[in-house]
């Protein structure tokens, strides 16, 4: 079996003026991503996601990857990640190269799963897994003034008992947001906060201490992703676990996070980190050093499906059934039809759980009519 064609499909959904949302660093209106559609000479089709703008992904595939991918046996999928460091002239750590590789890698795993009639998480060595806990990402900063409590109340009403909220725009405001979230969530719920790299270490530490009384499961990206020494300063100073990884690309960036004890939790995004093959390496490094793995997901439905398959494959090591520390899959609650509309059967987090698709490959079917509505190139 050989790959016979590679297509990059750019997708976009724009929020209207006044409806921008985001984090402590900026607001956005456009949700952009790119699906990769691979076909084989046997007629199998695989889907993947490169979590990057379409024209960049298309150019990267065309310039750097297509000659090697067309004609490749999809069972050789893990060679893609290695080749991204060796075949491309020192481009391996680049976000756009790793995003494009991610999309092709996920599509290859989808094909392999379909070829052997197994879901990807079983191919990656996972044991039987019917469902995973999901947490809601919500309480974004908004372009127009909106009551911050309403979105988290909606998430709790939908059955989530684990929630991540945006903070990072000043300690006083952070405390207010965390206090509001904890009130709505109740004492038993798991609450995570995301600073999106908007702080210097001393600011992140100040907020971490000020919100400690409300009980926080992790602090995400307290300082910019490039600020390695800042991560160490924060981690050394506070007791709350620190998480990062959505802005780290490829195995070497994650190796640094793990080796330097910069974080307690790594968060590879399946559409950017290098794909399922690279994520498996990252999970192996992390869990071996007793660092947790919780995938970052702000993707289309294809990236969500890839994250669910990956999450279902990650071992709990070293945790036991007596002291469980369950995997958590991120589920963004902001408006995004690229997440809601692209699958014939959407992945539904209602009740705070997602079913792990048990069909072959990613276990999902693309709604091609919906795809046509959001593609930029037609
Ligand atoms: Mg984040």
Question: Which features would summarize this protein structure in a list?
Answer:
single chain, 378 residues, alpha/beta, Enolase-like, domain 1, 2 domains, 3-stranded antiparallel β-sheet, 38% helix, globular, binds magnesium ion, Mandelate_racemase_N_dom, Mandelate racemase/muconate lactonizing protein, Enolase_C-like
Description:
The chain has helices at residues 54-69, 78-86, 95-116, 120-123, 149-157, 171-185, 201-211, 228-237, 251-259, 276-288, 301-313, 337-340, 368-374, and strands at 3-14, 21-22, 27-28, 30-40, 45-50, 131-138, 141-142, 162-166, 190-194, 218-220, 242-244, 265-266, 292-293, 328-332, 353-355. With 378 residues, the chain is α/β, with parallel strands linked by helices. The chain has two domains: 3-118, Enolase-like, N-terminal domain (Enolase-like, domain 1, 2-Layer Sandwich); 121-355, Enolase-like C-terminal domain (TIM Barrel, Alpha-Beta Barrel), CATH 3.20.20. Strands 6, 8, 9, 10, 11, 12, 13, 14 and 15 form a nine-stranded mixed β-sheet that branches. The chain has a three-stranded antiparallel β-sheet with strand order 1-4-5, with helices on both faces. The mean pLDDT is 95. The structure holds magnesium ion. InterPro entries: Enolase-like_C_sf, Enolase-like_N, Enolase_C-like, Mandel_Rmase/mucon_lact_enz_CS, Mandelate_racemase_C, Mandelate_racemase_N_dom, RHMD-like. Residues 340-368 are annotated as: Disordered. It holds the Pfam family MR_MLE_N.
């Amino acid at each position: 079996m050989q790959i016979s064609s590679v297509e990059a499909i750019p997708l976009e959904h724009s929020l209207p003026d006044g409806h921008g949302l985001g984090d402590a660093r900026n607001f956005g209106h456009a949700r952009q991503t790119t699906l990769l559609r691979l076909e084989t000479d046997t007629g199998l089709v695989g889907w993947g996601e490169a979590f990057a703008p379409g024209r960049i992904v298309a150019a990267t595939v065309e310039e750097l990857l297509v000659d090697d991918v067309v004609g490749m046996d999809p069972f050789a999928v893990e060679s893609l990640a290695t080749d991204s460091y060796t075949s491309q002239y020192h481009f391996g750590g680049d976000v756009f190269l790793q995003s494009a590789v991610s999309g092709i890698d996920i599509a290859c795993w989808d094909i392999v799963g379909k070829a052997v009639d197994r879901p990807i998480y079983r191919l990656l060595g996972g044991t039987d897994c019917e469902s995973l806990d999901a947490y809601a990402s919500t309480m974004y900063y908004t372009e127009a003034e909106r009551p911050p409590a309403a979105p988290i109340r909606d998430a709790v009403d939908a059955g989530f008992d684990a929630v991540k909220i945006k903070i990072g725009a000043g300690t006083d405001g952070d405390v207010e947001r965390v206090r509001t979230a904890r009130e709505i969530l109740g004492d038993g719920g798991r609450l995570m906060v995301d600073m999106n790299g908007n702080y210097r270490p001393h600011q992140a530490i100040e907020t971490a201490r000020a919100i400690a009384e409300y009980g926080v499961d992790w602090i995400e990206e307290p300082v910019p992703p490039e600020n390695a020494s800042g991560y160490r300063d924060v981690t050394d100073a506070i007791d709350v676990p620190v998480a990062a990884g959505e802005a780290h690309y490829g195995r070497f960036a994650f190796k640094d996070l793990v080796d330097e004890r910069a974080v307690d939790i790594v968060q590879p995004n399946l559409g950017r980190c290098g794909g399922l093959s690279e994520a498996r390496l990252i999970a192996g490094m992390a869990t071996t050093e007793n660092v947790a793995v919780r995938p970052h997901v702000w993707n289309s439905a294809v990236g969500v499906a890839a994250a669910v398959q990956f999450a279902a494959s990650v071992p709990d090591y070293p945790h036991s059934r007596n002291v469980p520390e369950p995997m958590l899959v991120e589920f963004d609650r902001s408006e995004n039809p690229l997440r809601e509309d692209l699958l014939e059967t959407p992945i539904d987090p209602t009740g705070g759980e997602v079913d792990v698709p048990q069909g072959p490959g990613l276990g999902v079917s693309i709604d091609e009519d919906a795809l046509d509505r959001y593609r930029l190139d037609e």
